Amino acid sequence: MQHFSELPPLSLYIHFPWCVKKCPYCDFNSHAKDAALPETDYINSLLADLDHELPLIWGRKLHSIFMGGGTPSLFSAEAMEQLMSGLRARLNFKPDTEITMEANPGTFEQHKFKSFNDIGINRLSIGVQSFNNKHLQQLGRIHDAKEAIRAIEVAHKAGFEKINIDLMYGLPSQTLGEAKGDLQMAMAMNPSHISHYQLTIEPNTYFHVHPPFVPDDERIADIEESCREMFAANGYDRYEISAFAKSGQQCQHNMNYWQFGDYIGIGAGAHGKLTDVAKQQIERRWKVKNPRDYLAASSTEQQTSGSQLLDQQTSAFEFFLNAFRLIEGFDSNLFALRTGQPISSVDKQLQLAESKGLIEWGLDTIRPTQTGLQFLNNLTELFLPPEKTNK
Prior knowledge:
Blueprint: E1 10-16, E2 18-19, E3 31-32, H1 39-53, E4 61-69, H2 77-90, E5 92-103, H3 107-110, H4 113-118, E6 123-129, H5 133-138, H6 145-157, E7 162-169, H7 176-188, E8 193-198, H8 206-209, H9 217-233, E9 237-240, E10 243-245, H10 252-258, E11 262-266, E12 271-276, E13 281-287, H11 291-297, E14 304-309, H12 312-323, E15 330-331, H13 332-339, H14 347-355, E16 359-361, E17 365-368, H15 370-374, H16 376-381
Parallel strand pairs: 1-4, 1-11, 2-3, 4-5, 5-6, 6-7, 7-8
Antiparallel strand pairs: 8-10, 9-10, 12-13, 13-14, 15-17, 16-17
């Protein structure tokens, strides 16, 4: 039986499902816009969606907001101001609530950065991916290196103190020197945070059907080792498997995910997770995925297309799926706080992971080893519910 003694921090995720074009590696719920964006209708639908969620979180303070996509920065500053006003009227913000928007480096978005900052968005995550024009073309990006550099400069001038750069490695035919050159340029732009992740070929993408020639495992390992040395030498701490930040600049929204906190999800295809102390349960909720159907559903109060209560084994698996991404691991008491179960309920799995050299299990802290981080899938599979094992 689960027993929750307190509520986790609460975040809000807002999904914007449109992009100028669909990138060949992207498996997110994003759609190329073929006409003017339905800004007013979508903002109204988001707020109606939130209204349906409010009874589940009465009295709780908001820890962070993340606007992802898709490309949220395609929306006008006026539309975003309407959204922010609606959020403030409905939610209890903490004074230091972190509010992140994902943005593309394209010239069209740049001129809105100052307005986004003025309305309270205080963290910008810019999808650069590479500063190499050859690789940008291969990735199907609509910006070039000059626009990427200019976008980061504009973000600094607009007043953003928290700026993240998304950067990929393992790109088609990428050399070690090219990967290091991308990272060197990114750090020269002085962002507070860099998300540095390997290009992976996902199902239901153009690259899955037409796979590019990507570096082999040996070159990938060389890139990762060299880049981590560069991060350390330039004051960026690796705090999550693909995230590097200056001191005190970790992404608070993603930290809440990785520590198995609660979050509301609004927007087409958004997901949420909420803990109910009174009912002693965790519920996952998800929204209508297709933007057109989502807009139509807002008038019928059917934007939530499904929900599921998490049993103890699923809760434990999902906790470790997230928490083992953290380089420093987690306090063993956090497992009980977030899943409602004593850490002793997973003794067998933890002992097996320790015997395989995948974790270090101290008195107060459990953390993945370097081997555990390298073979993260093998580590988390040890905690799969029995019915999902070997499937």
